[in-house]
Amino acid sequence: MLRKLMHVGPSMTSYEVQLEGVRENVGFASPEFLEAMRNSLEGLRIVVGADNSYLPFILPGSGTVAMESVTSILPRKGKVLVASNGVFGNRWKPILDAHRMEYEVLEAEPGKSVDPASIKDKLSSGNFASLVFTHVETSTGVRADIEEICRKARPLVDRIVVDGVASVGGETLKVKEWGIDAIITASQKGLASPPGAALLVVAKDSLNNTAGDGYFFDLKNWVEPMNTYLKGENGYLSTEPVGVVMALSHVFNDIRAEGLENTIKRHRVFSEALNEGLEEIGLKVLADREHWSNTVTAVVAERSDDIVKFALSMGIEFATGVHPKLKGKYFRIGHMGYFNYYDVFSALSVIERSALRAGINIKLGSGLTRAQEILIKNG
Ligand code: PMP
């Protein structure tokens, strides 16, 4: 059966994107690949709101590779504050441990976001050089108050690093305006490409004195290669995921054609319609209303793992919950990438039927009506 992919990554893509990189044999020094690399690096810089004072990076790897390599720009003198809203916020801990860095963690309960004021208080109280936090926490669907956090933290630290793995391509980002030193992401989420590439956009002045251990994971070794690729020339350091970059380039062209603001608005409106619909059915969105994200929704429901199984048998792949405090008690919907009008209704109708099959007493059809109202309200 043809399946709709509403997992939290890889996310839903288009056939054209899937075919890029497999249509032809493409070499890593071919003109087609070099143009795709240049276009993707430029596109990446634009979708996060950066300018030429930032350098974009595309590395073979994944989100975790991007997280680990960005540690090379964190000063070794001074601690790191990790503001964690869940599983992926907590992933910084083993990474910082592996690089023998000192850190402290402020952790929110599932569905909540660490309060910007408590981040400010913590940073003022100790010897912190860096702040790292997750923009959209994929385990809970919570969007952090990114602008306010940056405004409060900027005078207090040398480096602000944001994990945008589940937000880039679906949420407004103004890294330059907000004073963010580095944002990381991966190919398979909001940028709707196959997995295989780690993506970063880093302020050039924070690349002057990197302190990374390792070769592959020290960003300074990638500066010259990326500058070369930006000129459309072969900057080989390690073989890039050629097909993934071809796909990414296609996605950036699609975003350019739709208009970045329209792409983000599409995600915002569809997310609101979906979330409002879910609550109308009688299910609960895990994230606080003011922290609903454009890209991931976590839904609290009895027999959640069964709902995911039933939905798969009806052709939609959702994700189970992974937060250790709530395992089995919620499921997740990824609405990144090529998520469309009709996908809102497919998701809601399959959830309604799956919940009924799981024996949950819901108001059949009510979610679809509510979603229609939200879409009409938003034109
Ligand atoms: N950060 C966030 C917010 C994520 O959602 C993920 C992946 N789910 C990662 C980091 C890690 O990315 P990857 O699985 O590509 O290594």
Automatic annotation (TrEMBL):
GO terms of molecular function: alanine-glyoxylate transaminase activity; L-serine-pyruvate transaminase activity
Keyword Isomerase set for record: no
Named cofactor requirement(s): pyridoxal 5'-phosphate
UniProt superkingdom: Archaea
Aminotransferase class V domain: residues covered: 30-323
Database matches in Gene3D superfamilies: Aspartate Aminotransferase, domain 1 (3.90.1150.10), Type I PLP-dependent aspartate aminotransferase-like (Major domain) (3.40.640.10)
Entry keywords, A to Z: Aminotransferase, Pyridoxal phosphate, Transferase
SUPFAM superfamilies: PLP-dependent transferases
GO biological process, alphabetically ordered: glycine biosynthetic process, by transamination of glyoxylate
UniProt keyword Transferase, yes or no: yes
Family: Belongs to the class-V pyridoxal-phosphate-dependent aminotransferase family.
Name assigned to this protein: Aspartate aminotransferase
Organism, scientific name: Thermoplasma volcanium (strain ATCC 51530 / DSM 4299 / JCM 9571 / NBRC 15438 / GSS1)
